């Protein structure tokens, strides 16, 4: 909310900008944008959206637009007054909407957005546009901005005014004489007089806003002249693909996405027959800020016969493709299509299936032809795409082909087909490790035996990974198996040659079987119900111990995730403690246990060591510190 003060007449209110808006305006004032002319694109885009909203509202309330049904955007430059007015006859705004829309950034993630501003003009320009606050870009060229607006169906008009330096005022703008819609009057700064020149405005519109489907008219210089329409005023998606340039695609994407980056990929698809529709969809280059909001809403606009009926048509694409931006235009859906219909209507389901198939085909082509570019896409959107593996069985085969992951045996990204081709003789499963950080996951002691045998392990570090691997159970006909499972069997897999080309050393020292059995029994007795079992490890080659999940128990990382999100209470299931019989510490302890010496203190120290390696704190930090100090003292003695 904004703070407000009312003048003595009680008519005009002064509000302080929301703190985040103040910071944003300060950045804009320092000439964030390298190309100031984009402010006009943003104002025109907002005007176009306002007209689309009224056109839709008038479907059920035709009286809202009855006095003026010819939607348009009008540019009125005045070089003498040094102003540029951008006017539309769209939906308009009430007083409260002016305060809310122009005084606050009414979106979650505002703080994170501002924290990511770097001072680099190009990067920050993309961030600001992506966050949908392009209106404020007008302060790049303005000393002052006025917004006069009258909501459709309302007789009261309001005037919003600000110099962008910390506050704004809102006051009545009269009744009756103010036309429906919104006028943005930009009072141009001394160094921005060029934006009151008609030829300059024509160039900007034809460069950035030619795709706008509403006529953009330039006011005549004299009173007797006629306004000139300076854009094509035709829906871009209705034109043949061969006639649309990359520049036009880029500008249309920026319009529908309110973004400043360029689209990473474009999918333009037209279906004809029993069900006719057109989809013009874009994959962004940069990750949108609301990508991981719980609602998982889409951002594709739905048109019916070129009339906007939904700005966020969630039903026309699955939630795991919510990063897409663009439009879908149907010839067959009813104009009064409801939200419920979008979720359940068979025609919408067919549109969703056709568009999803086209998008996945386009991504597959990119992955094959431009693997490096696809790796950049995967870094931005892979975690969202993997949600489809978990919740949409009908698309799992296609999504499996698109799946990428870090590998324990090489740099860059690996795919399922390549992993299967590299499987070792005797290897029956696809092995994976999950974690929060790829480097930390690669350092896990669970990978030691796999690394020694040259067995590739897929490294999965997105939270959704824990869920889709459990839902699928297999990939490409191969079972999926976590390396943290106690039953991970390496015995059947042939040994790999070492780095120097020699086979692994068969003469490495190991604990005597009888002594090892005695140590295992002693550790079980000392640790009691703190562990589920103590077992000899086939996976450890360098570490002394590790914790493993028994078959049927939650994976270690999944349990930690559920605890973090308060989906799991209590201490969780006890784990299996695996010991490395080849490690010097285990051999010495086995000898002590065979000689009848107590190993209770070392048993707890080993368990705490295994917990720390897994990213868990010791059960009793003070006791751990004491035991560690005692062990060091004995070693020094």
Topology, element by element:
Blueprint: E1 4-6, E2 13-16, H1 19-29, H2 38-60, E3 73-78, E4 83-88, H3 95-103, H4 110-115, H5 121-130, E5 142-150, E6 156-162, E7 167-175, E8 181-188, H6 198-208, E9 216-218, E10 228-229, H7 246-257, E11 265-271, E12 277-283, E13 299-304, E14 307-310, E15 325-330, H8 339-344, H9 346-369, H10 371-385, H11 387-391, H12 396-402, E16 405-407, E17 410-414, H13 416-421, E18 430-434, H14 438-442, H15 448-452, E19 457-460, H16 465-472, E20 474-475, E21 478-482, H17 513-527, E22 531-536, E23 545-548, H18 556-564, E24 575-579, H19 584-594, H20 600-613, H21 621-636
Parallel strand pairs: 3-9, 13-15, 18-19, 18-21, 22-24
Antiparallel strand pairs: 1-2, 2-7, 3-4, 4-8, 5-6, 5-8, 6-7, 9-10, 11-12, 12-15, 13-14, 16-17, 16-19, 20-21, 23-24
Helix pairs in contact: 9-10, 9-12, 17-19, 17-20, 20-21
Would you write up a description of this structure?
- The protein has 637 residues and is α+β, with helices and mostly antiparallel strands.
- It folds into 4 domains: 4-228, Heat Shock Protein 90 (2-Layer Sandwich), CATH 3.30.565; 237-370, Ribosomal Protein S5, domain 2; 404-482, Rossmann fold (3-Layer(aba) Sandwich); 513-636, Heat shock protein 90, C-terminal domain (Four Helix Bundle (Hemerythrin (Met), subunit A)), CATH 1.20.120.
- Helix content is 36%, strand content 20%.
- It contains 21 helices and 24 strands.
- The strands form 4 sheets. The protein has a 10-stranded mixed β-sheet, covered by helices on one side. Strands 17-16-19-18-21-20 form a 6-stranded mixed β-sheet.
- Strand 11 and strand 12 form a beta hairpin.
- The longest helix has 24 residues, at 346-369.
């Amino acid at each position: 909310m904004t703070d407000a003060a009312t003048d003595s007449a009680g008519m005009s209110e002064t509000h302080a900008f929301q703190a985040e808006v103040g910071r944003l305006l300060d950045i804009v004032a320092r000439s964030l944008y390298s190309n100031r002319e984009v402010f006009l694109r943003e104002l025109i885009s907002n005007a176009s959206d306002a007209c689309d909203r009224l056109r839709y509202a008038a479907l059920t309330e035709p009286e809202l637009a009855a006095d003026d049904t010819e939607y348009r955007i009008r540019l009125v430059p005045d070089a003498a007054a040094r102003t540029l007015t951008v006017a539309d006859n769209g939906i308009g705004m009430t007083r409260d909407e002016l305060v809310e829309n122009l005084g606050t950034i009414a979106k979650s993630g505002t703080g994170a957005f501002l924290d990511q501003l770097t001072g680099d003009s190009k990067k920050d320009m993309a961030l600001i546009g992506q966050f949908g606050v392009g209106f404020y870009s007008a302060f790049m060229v303005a000393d002052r901005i006025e917004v006069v607006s009258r909501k459709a169906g309302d007789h009261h008009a309001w005037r919003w005014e600000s110099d962008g330096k910390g506050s704004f005022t809102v006051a009545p703008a009269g009744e009756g004489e103010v036309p429906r819609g919104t006028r943005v009057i930009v009072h141009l700064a001394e160094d921005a007089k060029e934006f009151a020149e008609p030829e300059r405005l024509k160039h900007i519109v034809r460069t950035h806003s030619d795709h706008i489907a509403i006529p953009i008219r330039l006011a005549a210089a004299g009173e007797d002249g006629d306004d000139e329409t300076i854009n094509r005023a035709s829906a871009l998606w209705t034109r043949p693909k061969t006639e649309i340039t990359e520049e036009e695609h880029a500008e249309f994407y920026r319009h529908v996405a309110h973004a400043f980056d360029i689209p990473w990929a474009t999918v333009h698809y037209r279906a004809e027959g029993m069900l006719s529709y057109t989809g013009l969809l874009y994959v962004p280059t940069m990750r949108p800020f609301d990508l991981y909001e719980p609602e998982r809403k889409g951002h594709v606009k739905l048109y019916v016969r070129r009339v906007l009926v939904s700005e966020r048509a969630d039903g026309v694409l699955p939630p795991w493709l919510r990063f897409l931006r663009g439009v879908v235009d149907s010839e067959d859906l009813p104009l009064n299509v409801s939200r419920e219909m979008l979720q359940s209507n068979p025609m919408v389901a067919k549109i969703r299936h056709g568009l999803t198939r086209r998008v996945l085909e386009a991504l597959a082509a990119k992955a094959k032809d431009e693997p490096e570019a696809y790796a950049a896409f995967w870094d931005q959107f892979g975690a969202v795409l993997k949600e489809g593996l978990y919740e949409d069985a009908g698309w799992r085969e296609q999504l499996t082909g698109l799946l990428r992951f870090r590998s324990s045996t090489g740099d860059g990204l690996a795919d399922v087909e390549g992993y299967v081709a590299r499987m070792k003789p005797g290897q029956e499963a696809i092995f994976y490790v999950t974690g929060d950080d790829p480097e930390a996951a690669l350092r896990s002691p669970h990978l030691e035996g796999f690394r020694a045998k040259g067995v590739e392990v897929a490294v999965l570090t997105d939270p959704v990974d824990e869920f889709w691997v459990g839902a699928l159970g297999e990939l490409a006909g191969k079972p999926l198996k976590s390396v943290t499972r106690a039953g991970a069997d390496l015995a059947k897999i042939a040994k790999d040659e070492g780095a120097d080309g020699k086979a692994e050393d068969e003469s490495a020292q190991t604990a005597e079987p009888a002594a090892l059995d005695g140590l295992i029994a002693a550790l079980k007795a000392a640790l009691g119900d703190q562990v589920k079992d103590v077992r000899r490890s086939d996976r450890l080659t360098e570490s002394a111990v590790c914790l493993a999940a028994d078959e049927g128990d939650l994976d270690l990382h999944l349990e930690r995730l559920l605890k973090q999100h308060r989906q799991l209470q209590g201490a969780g299931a006890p784990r299996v403690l695996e010991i490395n019989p080849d490690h010097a510490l285990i051999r010495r302890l086995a000898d002590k246990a065979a000689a009848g010496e107590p190993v209770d203190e070392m048993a707890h120290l080993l368990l705490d060591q295994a917990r720390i390696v897994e990213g868990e704190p010791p059960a009793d930090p003070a006791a751990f510190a004491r035991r560690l100090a005692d062990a060091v003292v004995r070693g020094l003695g």
